[in-house]
Amino acid sequence: MRCICCRSPVEEEKVCCPRCGFPLLGGDRENRQKIAGDYRKKLLGGTFLSVRQYYYGYDGNGDLQELKSEYVRAACAGELPPEGILWLDCAFAPLASGRDVELDIQIQNGSRSHSARLLVAAGKLDRMTRLGIYSDEGLRIRFAVGNGTEAVLSDSVPLLINQN
Where in the chain are the domains? Predict the structure, then answer.
């Protein structure tokens, strides 16, 4: 059986999910999904996802150099769909196949934060220009690089800062 809130595998005899704590309620599926959605929003509502953005310019010799970088807030984890990809309102230059993409992300909840470097393996990255966030099972996420309909996913990272 799977938890309806975080999609983690749960043993039949459990009364609540060991990963997210959602009670394994009976009743009709539509009502349980609404309650699970509300629970998920409350659990993750203070958790924000950011991606490091880099700024480049030319120096006096005409060489390209990094001017600065900063984390830019991408989404609130409580607003992520329980399944599928949330495509962000940002675009970047088309990528060429053959080069892996490394994303430097930050997950923040109040004064606590966790940073991670996620790798999106090369392959079908030609002309991919969008960034998204995929809700993985167990309150984990993956970042997606794609075109809005197909995507290549990064490694998985937990949304909860104290989670493995």
Answer: 1-44, 47-158
